[in-house]
Design brief:
alpha+beta, 19% helix, globular, 8 helices
Length: 350
């Protein structure tokens, strides 16, 4: 389904265009997610290309102020092919509505923007999204049922772990994916919302890392990618205990090395993490060794609350931030489609 444009008072809702990239960059730079670490999530020089990199295609809407000609809000959905009940399915990830700071709290077109988005993703088996724990105002607003708005059905909690560079504890191989297809079939395909396609550009410029047992079979593996072409994190400021920690060489103690306030975070993104038997000892040794081989000062990996690897990764020295996973139900749908098994969302594509 396609959509042209629609006028809502002084605003026009329309498909976002490459010429809007400058305004969209400004919108992303006007906000941050705060807490002990106040961080800006940015989508590089071409935000529209960044959205598209996270899936098969993207339906991104822009709201233009007709008086100024500026784009003042942007949001939509990224279409991805993910596993559901063991089979590939067309799914939609809602990116969240980003609004220019000086327009927040006074936009009446939001329900209509949701209505348009719902039509654009009507051929998808599932629509899902995540909201950071600290974004309490948005959580409160969206969890309350409202007329002409979809239902946000809470599914569970998702944690992103920030890991340090690590040490070469065990021997790690690179770039030999022999045996990975079997792991995909037996392991990743059983996880709800696990991506079917490892080639999405949103995973970044990546390499494959693995540890093999005596018979040559993969005992642990993952990809580690450089997303800097499509996504950046700027550390705006430190608060609480992190303000004190920022003055210490945290990397010497096995924790991530964060930049000075105002600097960009240099990180690799971990995807398709597999550890045989979810063994915490093997997981820790593998990730520390793979992190060292990758050369990144920090790695990010995310896992849903029912993923056993969260316990394993959580035993490592790390910094965490949390999100809430929702299934978005349109037009009075009553049954959620996510749940009943391990959820396999990849932080790289969120």
């Amino acid at each position: 389904m396609s959509f042209r444009s629609e006028r809502c008072g002084k605003y026009i809702l329309r498909p976002a265009l490459p010429s809007d990239n400058g305004d969209i960059r400004d919108i992303f730079e006007s906000g941050s997610f705060s807490g002990g670490l106040n961080v800006q999530f940015l989508r590089g020089a071409s935000p529209l290309s960044s959205f598209e990199a996270d899936g098969d295609c993207a339906h991104i809407l822009a709201a233009e102020d007709t008086e100024t000609g500026r784009v003042i809000a942007v949001g939509g959905a990224v279409i991805q092919t993910l596993y559901l009940d063991g089979a590939p399915a067309r799914c939609a990830y809602l990116t969240g509505l980003k609004v220019r700071h000086d327009y927040r709290g006074r936009l009446a077109f939001i329900p209509r923007a949701y209505g348009i988005t719902g039509q654009l993703v009507s051929d998808c088996a599932v629509t899902y999204t995540t909201i950071l724990d600290g974004n309490t105002g948005v959580i409160k607003m969206l969890e309350k049922r409202r007329k002409n708005m979809p239902e946000y059905r809470y599914i569970g909690h998702y944690t992103t772990f920030c890991l340090g560079r690590g040490k070469p504890v065990i021997r790690v191989e690179t770039d030999d994916m022999t045996g990975f297809d079997e792991i995909t079939e037996l392991h990743f395909s059983k996880k709800s919302l696990a991506p079917c396609d490892t080639a999405y550009a949103g995973f970044g410029n990546k390499r494959f890392y693995c540890v093999r047992d005596g018979s040559g079979k993969i005992a642990a593996c993952c990809f580690i990618g450089d997303q800097s072409a499509t996504k950046h994190y700027r550390l705006c400021s430190y608060g609480g205990i992190y303000r004190l920690a920022s003055h210490f060489p945290t990397a010497l103690f096995g924790y991530p090395a964060f930049p000075k306030a105002g600097g960009m975070i240099k990180n690799g993104i971990v995807s398709y993490l597999y550890v045989r038997g979810n063994d915490p000892a093997l997981c820790g040794k593998f990730l520390r060794s793979a992190a060292y081989r990758s050369g990144f000062p920090m790695l990010l990996w995310g896992g849903f609350e029912n993923d056993p690897l969260c316990d394993a990764v959580g035993k490592m020295r790390c910094v965490r931030y949390g999100s809430r996973l929702y299934e978005v139900l349109w037009n009075g749908e009553s049954d959620a489609h996510i749940g009943g098994g391990v959820v396999g969302m990849e932080a790289a594509l969120l």
